[in-house]
Write a sequence for this structure.
């Protein structure tokens, strides 16, 4: 199985800050990585697929990069509605696996 | 707009079988996508359970301790999850979702709202 490790597990930031979350795969997944945003009591929402492709309707302040084993999700200017938990997921092969999540809290 | 809706008992006794159904609307389940189940224990992360194609082809997470069966009913445009011999560790919010059918496209683009299943006597 491919293990996905996210860092940090939590962070606090202010509105307007640039935020970067990292995700590392235990083996290469090419560019087949997705990022999700989850707010309390809600289902996860797809933000980024194929490492850097923005899902339709997602604000352009979200961006993704990376390939192989190392990936990043960047929020260029954090907005109040961005406080949430973010998950990465390898979309390369079964079994599908998620990172442990990064909770972004208000500073 | 694809819509998914989970349904099933919210309380299951230990050692019994957890059964959930996901009804898909505004989209044919017989299209070229897989349909999957993901769960999230309270306060924890996401765990993929398994996925099914309309042909009946399935993939399951080998790390699950409870036996899993996922089935599809194309005539009703729905798919189902059965988890046998459940324990308290199976208490979670269960989501159904859609993902692509080719390697690299196994990301979930549409999700149900989720349903909480508690395992308790």
């Amino acid at each position: 199985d491919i293990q996905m490790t996210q860092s940090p597990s939590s962070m606090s930031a202010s509105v307007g800050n640039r935020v970067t979350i990292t995700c590392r795969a235990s083996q290469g997944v090419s560019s087949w990585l997705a990022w999700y945003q989850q707010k309390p009591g809600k289902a996860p929402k797809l933000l980024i697929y194929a490492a850097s492709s923005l899902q339709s309707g997602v604000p352009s302040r979200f961006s993704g990069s990376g390939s192989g084993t190392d990936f990043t999700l960047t929020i260029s200017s954090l907005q109040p509605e961005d406080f949430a938990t973010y998950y990465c997921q390898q979309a390369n092969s079964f079994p599908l696996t998620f990172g442990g999540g990064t909770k972004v809290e208000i500073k | 707009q694809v819509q998914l809706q989970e349904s099933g008992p919210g309380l299951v006794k230990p050692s019994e079988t957890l059964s959930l159904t996901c009804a898909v609307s505004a989209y044919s389940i017989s299209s070229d996508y897989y349909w999957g189940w993901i769960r999230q224990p309270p306060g924890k992360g996401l765990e993929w359970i398994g996925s099914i194609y309309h042909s009946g082809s399935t993939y399951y997470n080998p790390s699950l301790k409870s036996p899993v069966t996922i089935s599809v009913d194309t005539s009703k445009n729905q798919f189902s999850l059965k988890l046998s011999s459940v324990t308290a560790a199976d208490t979670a919010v269960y989501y159904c979702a859609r993902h692509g059918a080719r390697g690299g496209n196994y990301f979930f683009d549409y999700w149900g709202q989720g349903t909480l299943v508690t395992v308790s006597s």
The first strand of chain A starts at residue 4 and ends at 7. The mean pLDDT of chain A is 97. Chain A is about 0% helix and 50% strand.
